[in-house]
Write a structure and sequence with these properties.
mainly alpha, 2 domains, disordered N terminus, single chain, Arc Repressor Mutant, subunit A
């Protein structure tokens, strides 16, 4: 370890931990060291022996704390090389929220409410901040959707990409991560839309309007277009759900789901 790095580690604001909940206390302190930039992304942690001395705990406690931090996306443990500081990737955040939503069996109505709260704002920000590349990517998504009105999987993939690109255009990392979750959770609902013959065409029309608003940097119209789009999607998917439920009921000999 370079001398200057070793000296820097001696200056870390670390406190000895009490005897209760040892590894949780180490986890909390190390998180703060990372968040406060005392430990920077890409840097290698001191060895276990030094960490044990600094925190006043055993190697077992340090290893347990390191595993928790690795699960949280804050450390990468590389056997033979050491343990390195990292930062949670977008997909790590999205996966955590998605697991929470699925475990709670979040309803379509809840998802629609979240989309209404976020996506009109995303559309307005995208109109103000989108680059030429973003606009080109949005156009490419629409072209795929236009060719895929009879291909649900291709249409849905392009639809999801369109909304993801809008979020990227905002330049807001939190909105990007949350949109990634929403996009994945809405997959089945988007497929269900194909139960209604004209629904994909209606969705495509709204995407054309959104693209025009973003290209023209018209944030107010982009916001309105997204809100109207989501309202139409809710109506189409609600109607599709009724049809789907009827089909399942008819297919059940007992008339039960």
């Amino acid at each position: 370890m370079p001398l200057e790095q070793a000296t820097a580690y001696r200056d870390l604001p670390v406190q000895k931990v009490s005897r209760e909940g040892l590894h949780e206390q180490v986890v909390e302190q190390m998180q703060e060291l990372i968040f406060e930039k005392h430990l920077r992304s890409g840097s290698r942690l001191p060895g276990e022996r030094e960490l044990c001395q600094r925190f006043g705990v055993s190697r077992t406690v340090i290893r347990e704390a390191s595993k928790v931090l690795a699960q949280r996306g804050l450390l990468v443990i590389e056997p033979g090389r050491g343990t390195f500081v990292t930062l949670p990737a977008e997909h790590d955040v999205a996966r955590s929220i998605a697991l929470f939503a699925r475990a709670r069996d979040v309803s379509f109505a809840n998802l629609v409410e979240v989309r209404r709260a976020l996506e009109p704002e995303i559309a307005e920000l995208a109109a103000a901040r989108a680059t030429k590349t973003h606009v080109q990517r949005l156009q490419a998504c629409i072209e795929v959707m236009d060719r895929s009105l009879a291909d649900p999987e291709a249409y849905v993939a392009a639809d999801q990409e369109f909304h993801s690109v809008l979020a990227e255009a905002t330049g807001n990392d939190i909105l990007i991560a949350i949109t990634g979750v929403i996009v994945n959770l809405a997959q089945n609902a988007r497929r269900l839309m194909f139960t209604i013959p004209e629904a994909p065409k209606r969705g495509l029309q709204y995407h054309h309007v959104l693209l025009e608003c973003v290209s023209a940097r018209n944030g107010a119209d982009a916001r309105d277009a997204m809100y109207n789009h989501l309202r139409q999607v809710e109506q189409d998917i609600s109607a599709a759900a009724v049809i789907s439920d009827k089909k399942r009921t008819q297919a059940s000999p007992s008339g039960q789901l």
